[in-house]
Amino acid sequence: MHKRRIIFIIIFFFILIQGFGQNVTHHVYLKNGSIIKGKIIENVPGDHIKIKCKDGNIWAFKESEIEKTEDYSPQLNFLYTDLGMGVTISDNINGEINLSVGYKINKRFSAGISTGYDWISQNSPFINRGGMPFQAEGRFNFFPEKYWDLQFVLKTGYLLLRQTYYDRPDVSFSLNPCLYLLTNSTEGKGLYIGAGYRFQYMRTEGWYYWESKKSSVEYYFNRVNLKVGYIF
Questions:
Q1: What CATH number does residue 52 fall under?
Q2: 14 by DSSP, 3-state: which?
Q3: Are the C-beta atoms of residues 24 and 34 closer than 8 Å to each other?
Q4: pTM score > 0.85 for this model?
Q5: 75-117 pLDDT, tens per residue?
Q6: Which strands sit side by side in the sheet containing 66-71, from one edge to the other?
Q7: Pair 201, 90 in one domain
Q8: pLDDT, tens digit, for every residue of 8-35?
C-alpha cells in the first residue's frame, strides 16, 4: 500500500512540473514597434524566423519585418524563498512542511536558513512526536542557464522536538542532503520535486518504566525524503 502511494505522489509531481510554461529566451523586435518574446525555434538567414511564445503559439516573420533580435537574459534575483512540503519514509510515512529564505551568492551558490514542522513516527510511543527544525542550508545549481536545473541542497541544524508524557528531548540533530529537479530556473523561480536522505539523532531524558531512576535514551533515524515545492 505504501509503495502505491509513493508511486502516485511521484507521478503527480511530474504532471505538475510538465504543466509549467516554456521559459522566455529571446526577444524579436519588429519594424512596426511590436516586441515578441519567446524561444526562436527556426532561423533561416535572409528569409524568416519562427518563434514559439510562452502560451504555445508559434509566429513566423519575414526578415524584412524584423528590426533586430536579442537574447533574453533575466537579472538574477539575489533573495529566494522556498516553500515546500513532503514525506519522509522509514518504518512509517511521515509528513513535513518547510520554509527557507536565503541569499544567492551567484548563479550557482546560495545560502540560507530553514524552518517548518516535521513529524517523527515510529512503532513506539516514546518516539511519536513532532518538532520544528532550525537549520542552515547551502545550495548548488548545476545548470543555472537552462530551463531544467538540478539543485543540490544540504541542510543541517537543530530539531526542537515536542515533549511527551514519558520524557523530554535533550539533544536533537539532523542532516539532510537532497537533490531537486527545478523548472523555469533561469527566471530564478520555479516548481521543483526533490528526493534525498535524512539522518536524525535524538537523545531524550525522562522516567521510563524499565528504569528505577531518571535516565537518557538515544535514537538514530535514517529516512528517505521526498519533497515538492516552489522557489520564488
A1: 2.30.30
A2: helix
A3: no
A4: no
A5: 556 788 899 988 888 777 778 889 999 988 888 899 999 998 8
A6: 58-62, 48-52, 35-44, 26-30, 66-71
A7: yes
A8: 545 554 444 444 444 447 888 998 988 8
